[in-house]
Design brief:
Layout lengths: L1 H31 L16 H10 L1 H4 L3 H17 L1 E4 L6 H15 L12 E5 L3 E3 L4 E3 L1 E4 L4 E5 H9 L7 H16 L3 H13 L1 H4 L1 H10 L10 H14 L1 H7 L1 H10 L6
Helix pairs in contact: 2-5, 4-5, 5-7, 7-8, 7-11, 8-13, 12-13
């Protein structure tokens, strides 16, 4: 009898989950343009005191979170470490380096339910700019889908992280490329929202009238207009580094970007 009850409960739970994900969530997405839920971690992982202190010292984003959301942020950091390998090229990988890289990624994807993607499995770090085999040139950073790698010059990553008002952040820039590629190919709830709003965001690049207005205001650096991939990465750098100026200069575009990554400032 006990086994029969357990089986009934199990099947009932599975049936309920099917209804939630196939009926309730699509309707919720349609009405509110965001996933039904973002964070649910039955066995939440914690950071040690030293790792937590790095977040406190280095990420104002983390400090603005509620206590509950700080535990979510820390859990995602732990999962990042479990899923991605750090490789140092002529440089020793330290815990500080790992925390800064992981924290940047988690900050960018914090409003998305599916945040661990399989487009990369390693982070390769060089001391400074390095020779890339992709185009035979020296790079500061890149996303290499064939190698399933994110590559950073640590000198430039650190400069982008430390200088928070110049709208140049190598970590955010390269991880934005990953997020872009993932959401163009995936059909999870967060990717659907991202793709829907991305179509609104990219109009500011492709529509001549909107594009001219952006250039006239001279808020985004010129590299944004190289192509749609760089456009997205550059505006996300601006979004996180100077959000108040962004919102004041381009309120509609800011709202689209906010909805695209389901970002809610604490």
């Amino acid at each position: 009898m006990a086994i029969e009850i357990f089986v009934l409960i199990l099947f009932g739970t599975l049936f309920l989950l099917l209804i939630i994900f196939n009926v309730v969530e699509p309707a919720y997405l349609f009405l509110f343009n965001k996933p039904l839920y973002i964070h649910w971690y039955p066995f939440s992982k914690k950071l040690n005191a030293g790792q937590r202190q790095i977040l406190v010292n280095e990420f104002p984003f983390y400090n603005r979170l509620s206590q509950k959301k700080k535990t979510y942020f820390e859990h995602r950091i732990s999962k990042f470490f479990a899923n991605y390998q750090f490789i140092g090229k002529e440089i020793v990988i330290t815990e500080q380096m790992q925390m800064l890289v992981a924290g940047t990624y988690v900050m960018l994807t914090f409003g998305m339910r599916k945040y661990l993607v399989n487009l990369f499995n390693k982070i390769i770090i060089y001391p400074s700019n390095y020779f890339s085999t992709v185009n035979r040139e020296y790079h500061k950073g890149e996303f290499n889908p064939k190698m399933k790698a994110i590559v950073f010059s640590w000198e430039d990553f650190l400069l982008g992280h430390a200088t928070t008002t110049d709208n140049v952040n190598l970590g955010l820039h390269e991880f934005s490329h990953v997020l872009h590629f993932h959401c163009l190919k995936s059909n999870d709830a967060s990717a659907i929202v991202f793709f829907d709003k991305f179509n609104e965001v990219i109009k500011y690049y492709s529509d001549p009238i909107l594009n001219i207005e952006l250039i006239r205001k001279n808020y985004f650096r010129l590299y944004a207009y190289e192509n749609q991939f760089e456009f997205l990465s550059v505006i996300l750098e601006h979004f996180f580094e100077t959000p108040r100026i962004f919102k004041k200069s381009h309120p509609e575009l800011y709202a689209h970007v906010s909805a695209m990554i389901n970002f809610k400032d604490e």
